[in-house]
Amino acid sequence: MTAIGITTAAAAAPANAKPWQRAVRRLLKRRGAMVGAVVVLFFVVVAVAAPLIAPYEPVATSWSAVRKPPSLEHWFGTDEIGRDVLSRVIFGARASLLAGVVSVCISLACGVPIGLISGYVGGFLDGLLMRITDALLACPFLILAIALAAFLGPSLTNAMIAIGISAMPAFIRLTRAQVLNAKVEDYVEAARAVGNPHRRIVLRHILPNILAPIMVQATLAIAAAIIAEASLSFLGLGQQPPAPSWGSMLNTAKNFLDQAPWMAMWPGAAIFSVVLAFNLFGDGLRDALDPRHRG
Amino acid sequence: MFAYLLRRIAIIIPTLVFVSMIVFGLQQLLPGDPALAMAGEERDPQVIAFLRTKYHLDQPLPVRYGLWVEAVVHGDLGESIRINRPVLDLVLEKLPVTAELAGLAMCFALLIGIPAGVLSAVKNGSVWDYAANVFALWGLSTPNFWLGFLMILLFSVRLGWLPASGYVSPFEDLRQNLGAMIMPAFVLGNAIAAIMMRHTRAAMLQVMGMDYIRTARAKGLAERIVVIKHGLRNALIPVVTLGALEFGQLLSGAVLTEQVFTIPGFGKLIVDAVFNRDYAVVQGVVLCTATAYIVLNLFADITYFLVNPRLRA
């Protein structure tokens, strides 16, 4: 956080502004990040208000409207058993956003404390935790998530746990690296010198100062988690039918690509839009919190 | 050099031990009795008793782990309960298919990502830079299975140029093989190209600000030579090393790509195994991919060490 205070961009802000106020000001100036934030907000509203805005029940079938192309009655068309694609895309936002946020929360809840302990304690424990993290990192993200989801059983909850565990090593590594840098800073030395216990030093002095890069990583990890959930659902290991999810909609759509391409278009476009929005926002947040990344 | 090699190899041993623990531990996640779960629909007590003995489920956990590691070290990754074949044979059979797909995808990634990264860095702040960054964001945000669908719709359904699915061995018919692999390889390489573009851009921006670049320009060298010979050659060292780290992403993407294009590779093997409750195959694939990742990173580190004179000094 100290780097924020010495940037030229910050110099333009009022001298009495706090570092986070300067960061927010920089974030607001980044057009890409703001577009991303608006799109994310749009999808959040869609997910929350799904029962109010969806024109049909997402699981309601109609044998008289099987694989109908987009029309005024069904804006995004219908699927292989006559369900309204728009309604399913709207309700599918719930599964995707929930999976993105919950799995990243799992990664944060497990990864950050492990990283804090590893970086602060050091020595043998650090070596041991890092080798375990290396082992987790060595297992490709989706392959580990598939394996975990396979052994836990296919469901949205298990998919979120699997994605959370698979994404955790990145948070352990990041937190540990930040702690290693922070623990040699003067303010930590000072906190130690006045007799603060280790737990207080870690939680009250180090953690608040290393939150910025963790927040950036979390935002970008949500984008990756949404793709991972869609991938697991696409493979049949996430949200189970008939509950709507963008990934499972694509799984069904692959059998009707030449007859009903709209079945694949809309859920894919929804995944792309929300992931792009999180990436835009994450990139902007990174630039705002650490202006050294610009250029 | 020798000391570095020994130190680097020494680090991977505990990592491999923990990988084996994770892979073995996966089986413990099975809810209830693992023998019952493995038996699936089969409820014959004799079958369950057989599975319990075969997988040493009647033994304490550490003993089971020891026996499993002993078997793995001797090349025995277990047996597929669905097709009664050794897992290692299945993995070795599917490996060349995924290796070809991954190799072609990496070619696409390098051919697109590196020039785009160089262009973006050299024309920093221009329309080219903006376009390259948009391309990177597009690559990072597009689910590759959806991109696969879009390409099938365009090149197979609408234009009829390329087959939508299937695989032909290059030893049978190279032309058909390339025809079938070009779309999946592009789809898989797309996201990696975006990552390579970002790495290349960052490395080039750093290198182009160095004193030796200013000296090269001061000598009157053509800008093309300055960029390629003096800039890119130095920027490529970290890019290639970071590229090796993308191997995991490549394998993860291959699972989905193979599913979309019905390619009988590693990814299809693990997905089919999951639905057949063929847990030994799932464990085998995770163990092999993790080991391959560790070994590949070891090679990348050694290469980095060899090509960087400052590290050797």
Record keyword descriptors for this entry.
heterodimer, A: 295 residues, mainly alpha, 12 helices, 0% strand, disordered N terminus, B: 313 residues, 14 helices
What does this structure look like?
With 295 residues, chain A is mainly alpha-helical. In chain A, α3 crosses α12, α7 crosses α8 and α10 (198-234) packs parallel to α11 (246-253). Chain A has helices spanning 8-12, 19-29, 31-48, 50-53, 85-121, 123-138, 141-152, 156-182, 186-193, 198-234, 246-253, 262-289. Chain A is elongated and about 75 Å long. The mean pLDDT of chain B is 86. Chain B contains 14 helices and no strands. Chain B is mainly α and 313 residues long. In chain B, α5 (87-122) runs antiparallel to α6 (127-141) and α5 packs across α13 (279-307). In chain B, 38% of the residues are buried. Chains A and B meet through α6, α7, α10 and α12 of A and α1, α6, α7, α11 and α12 of B.
Distance from first to last alpha carbon of chain A: 19 Å
The number of E-state strands of chain A comes to 0
Strand runs of chain B, count:
0
User: What is the count of helical runs of chain B?
Assistant: 14
Q: Which of globular, elongated, flat, extended, rod-shaped describes the shape of chain B?
A: globular
Q: Kindly state the percentage of residues in helix of chain B.
A: over 70%
Structural class of chain B: mainly alpha
| Low-confidence segments of chain A | 1-11
- How is the quaternary structure best described? heterodimer
Element pattern of chain A in H and E: HHHHHHHHHHHH
Ranges of chain B where pLDDT stays below 50 over 5 or more residues in a row are none
End-to-end C-alpha gap of chain B:
10 Å
Compressed to H and E, one letter per element, the order of chain B equals HHHHHHHHHHHHHH
Give helix % range of chain A: over 70%
